[in-house]
Design goal:
Rossmann fold; five-stranded parallel β-sheet; alpha/beta; elongated; single chain
Length: 274
């Protein structure tokens, strides 16, 4: 079932992402023109033009992603004791790393940098890194986690401290597969992932009974005073795609029982014996 869920999620997103929907609408309009439904085609073209212009000109995606990124905040003070640091993969560019035989990193590099900084602040804590290939056609990429190890090593983390899990393909599998690897199952773990992704990650962690302290990084939205018309289509579209993907993920995870609430929130952490 997990494999079916993974494949279906990739297929559905490939069809329903904002960019894909625009392409499908363009195909539909072309079909209408070929069938001589000119009036209907003109209406759709007008709608597509208006939406495309707004997305190109103004960061509308910020309004969708901002609630996700502000759901959790960086803790002002860490509780004690701590059992380790969990970093969710996603910054590593596995396909490019394989192509060039050198570790490559893309959006989300702050996950690695912040994990390295936390590793310096807490020099005795183990670092648990989870994340395999999320490519349907290239599932065997980086089977030994060398990309994550090298990137963390370059950021100053001793390789001996790093516990690598490389089979997880999505957020649910991240926590499902690291659970048996945790040094102290009942301990508190700092959780490092992108701010927009933190609600879903916390929801899955709670469902798996893993006690995490959210540490969001990699913010994508601007504050209101920094939002203005700048006609940066690629940047605006990237944020919109990310926001839509994450909201859809929250809905699907809740509907399939992978989280206990649709929009997980912070709860008071209860002391547990390790």
């Amino acid at each position: 079932m997990d494999n079916l869920f993974f494949v279906l999620s990739k297929l559905v997103w490939g069809l329903l992402s904002p960019t894909s929907l625009m392409v499908w609408l363009l195909v539909f309009v072309t079909l209408l023109l070929w069938l001589n439904y000119v009036r209907q085609a003109k209406k759709l073209l007008l709608l597509m033009s208006i939406v495309s212009f707004i997305v190109m000109g103004y960061p509308v995606g910020d309004y969708l992603i901002h609630p996700l990124e502000t759901r959790f905040s960086v803790p002002e003070q860490m509780p004690e004791p701590l059992a380790g640091i969990i970093m969710l993969g996603g910054a590593e560019q596995l396909k490019l790393s394989d192509s060039w035989q050198a570790p490559q990193v893309g959006d989300g590099a702050e996950r690695i940098l912040q994990t390295a900084e936390l590793a310096q602040q807490y020099p005795t804590l183990p670092i648990i890194v989870t994340g395999g290939s999320n490519l349907v056609q290239m599932q065997d990429l980086d089977s030994e986690g060398q990309v994550a190890k090298k990137l963390l090593s370059q950021a100053g983390v001793e390789p001996a401290r790093v516990i690598i899990e490389t089979q997880a393909r999505n957020t649910y599998e991240n926590f499902q597969k690291i659970k048996p690897l945790l040094p102290k199952p009942a301990g508190r773990y700092i959780l490092v992932t992108s701010a927009f992704h933190m609600p879903r990650a916390v929801g899955v962690a709670k469902q798996q009974h893993i006690n995490v302290i959210p540490y969001p990084v990699d913010y994508r939205s601007d504050k209101p005073n920094n939002r203005y018309w700048d006609f940066d289509l690629s940047a605006h579209l990237a944020v919109l795609e990310t926001a839509c993907h994450e909201w859809l993920g929250l809905v699907v995870y809740y509907a399939t029982g992978k989280t206990q609430s649709w929009f997980p929130q912070a709860t008071v952490s209860v002391d547990k014996k390790d």
